[in-house]
Each structure stands twice: as C-alpha cells, then as structure tokens.
Amino acid sequence: MLNYFWWYSISWALVLFLYSLNFADFSSGLDFGIVIFAIITSIISGVFGYVFRKEFSFFKEAKENKKESRTKEDKQYNGFKGNFLFVLPVVIVFFFSVIEFIIIRQVPFIEVVFLRDAFYQDVEFIPLYHVALIATATYLAVWYFYRVIVSKQRRKIAICCYVALMLLFLLYLMRSGIMIVGFISILMLSAYLLSKVGIKLKYVLITFAVIIAGLFGFGVFGNARHGYDWNDHSFIEEIGLYDKWPAFIPRQLMWSYSYVTTPLANLNYNTNNVYSDDFNVVGIISELLPDTISKRIVNEKVKVDLVKSYFTASTGYARSYIYGGYFGLYFMFMFLMGIGVLGVFIKKAYRSEPFIIFSGFLSATYLLMTFDNMLAYVGLSIPLWVSFFVLVFSSKRKAKK
Fold first, then answer.
1. In 250-353, where does DSSP find H-type helix?
2. Is the pTM here over 0.90, yes or no?
C-alpha cells in the first residue's frame, strides 16, 4: 500500500469521519468551503491513484532489484569490512547524538520520563544541528527497513540498525519520528506482503492490531512525556475538552483523536474568523519549502488563530489560506500532486529502486497534511526531498548505463 495518491484520499475521509463523531468540544460545524475542498481534492487524488495504480507494485520492484542488490552486497559488503561499512551511518548518527546530549547536558528521555526534572517543551536542542541529525536518522531508518525486506544477506544487521535508530528517537522523545518511520515501515511491509501473498484476513487483523497498539503506545507516551503516569489521563481529558468519550474505547486513544481532529478544527476556525484581502504570493510559495529555508524568505510567518493555544497544528493548509484564501489551499494541493506525478513519471521512464523509499515518504507527507504542513516540517520534508533527489539521480545513472 505505497500508493500515496490513495493515502491522501484515505486521510481526509478518516479525519472527516472522526471529526463528525464529535467526541470532544473542539468539534464545530465545518465551513462549506472546507468540506468542498476536502471532497474535490480527495476525488482528484483518488483518480490519480487509480490511473497510476500499476506503478506501485512493490514486489515487482523488489524482485527486479534483488539480484542486483545481492550482487552489490557480495562485492561491497563482504566480511568484517563490509559489515562495518553497512552500519557506519548509524555509528556516525549516534556519535553526533552523543555530542548533542553532552552539549545540552541531558538525555530528554531520562530527564523527562525517569527523573522528571524537566518538561520536553523546555529542552533546547542545538539549532540546525539537531534538525540535520534527526532528518538523517529518519531517512536512514526507512532505508534500513527497506533493506530488511529485500536483502537476505544483511537482514539481521539491517534490523539491528533500524531498531537502534528507533531507540535514538526514543532517547530524544521524538514521538513524531517514531510515528513517521513506523508508519512508512508498516506501509512497506504491507505492500510487500500484499504483492506476495495477496489480501488475507489474518494479515489485515495483524495490521489493524499493530496500528491500534501503536496509537495506544502513543497515548501512553503522551501521558509520560507530560509527567503523568502511563494510565493517568487527567491531562489530556482537560486540554482535549473531553466530556463525551465512549467508555468502551481506551482513554489512551484520546491523544490520537485530539491530534487527528484539532488541526481541522483550527483550520475551520480560521476560515470562519480570519479574512484578509491581501494576496501574498511569497507567503504562499514559502509554505511549500522546509522551515529552515522559508524563514529566510519570510521574516515572520503569519499567525494562525487557534481554538486553544496548546493545540497548535492546523493542517498543512491554514497559512496558505491566510496568505491566499482558497486559492492558497488549491495551489498547495496542486504542488503536492505535482511532486507525486513527477515521481511516477521518473520511475516509469527508468525503473528505480529508490522509488519505493520515495513513495513511503510521500505517503507519510500526504497523510499527515491533515495534521500540519509536512512540506515545512523539516523532520519529514528534508528526508522526502533527499529521497526525491536520490530517485532522480539514480534514474540518470541508469539512463547513462
């Protein structure tokens, strides 16, 4: 299931459904323009997904590259030297992580969860250094998981590298990193199993169970991250404005429900309460770029009005709306679709293994645009662009051959 076009449609359908359940007082009547936008863009993306569906055959790609991958591994990763080169990127990432821990004089997981001497919001990471480090770790984690699937020769080592990087996210208390990499990993594994054995009930149930367990763990992590016991939900109940939560649903899932629905509530709040006759082209374009770049284009980003100050996400479209009204929303959508279509055409022209990794990152980007602007969030946007340029240059090398 690496068809990123379908993930865009699925994500909006899921958010609209959960929002309509009205489990929290954040939910209010949606602006008609937002509903139309969600429906139209979901249909368009769904059509793209259907037209290009054959280009997302994971097993076919993996099968075509298995012999080539094994040959490369035999030549490049033979013996101790080869194993060392294979794990070297992880060693380098951990080395620079230790340096950051020393400079900031704390390990967030130990300080916040165990010692409870600090709050996560108070941790001050090294500017730019931390961004580059986490972006590198994110890309590598996905790459190693891909090697777990397609490479028998280095599978055990790849698993160790993957687990090590996920533990690094845990030390940093990076829930977003764990969820992004975890989501892409599930997509890759599901796509592989689907293409190899087809749709089977037990795999569907296992996938569903893994997702629920992940969301449950996300809630436990959320409680602990704010200094509460894993089963103490008083904090999220208060800030999430919950008074209609069904008794049969574990309250740990409140965190996920709030993270899914409050961004749409904030976007809706802005379409109902914010009006500007200014049309800021530079602002619209800046929303398409990672924050580290856009901050140098726009001195100060526009302020997004929030229903409550502590839930700051407002989907990936709120600032685009403020900069350019509904044109800003549709312009960003067209840009997202353009990236996806371009990736497919590059892959169609020159079959390239990196397309699978690119598809994973773009699937996460499409899905999480209902939460925040993933084109601006450096933790995902930088690995996405890295995967895109790897796809482009690998295709060029194959063309020359």
1. 254-273, 281-286, 291-294, 318-349
2. no
